[in-house]
Specification:
about 110 residues, mainly alpha, 3 helical TM bundles of succinate and fumarate reductases, 4 helices, about 75% helix
Amino acid sequence: MSILSPDKNLLAYKYYHTFGKALIPLTLFSYFNNKYNFNYKAIDVFTTINLGYHSYFSTSCIISDYIKNNKVAKVSRLTNLNLHVISTIGIFKYIKNNGIIENKFIN
């Protein structure tokens, strides 16, 4: 399996559909974890991994469906991978440093 095209691998499809069922429950657990200051960072980490994988896989499917030029598709896939890795690492750093998301931006 090429990491740039996970949508062409049956095992990756299986994980996509299996973990997709956990998106809403994990997001809700993460929300209540942060709202009530339980501070279980593992919930946020699992939510981040799940959302990152699901988003990366979905974007890869869109690239396969709509971008037919191979050179443009490869650049799009590299960009997709880099942006998802950078954003996931950024969220991990935020979780590690801050632990919880406070409502300091909402007033």
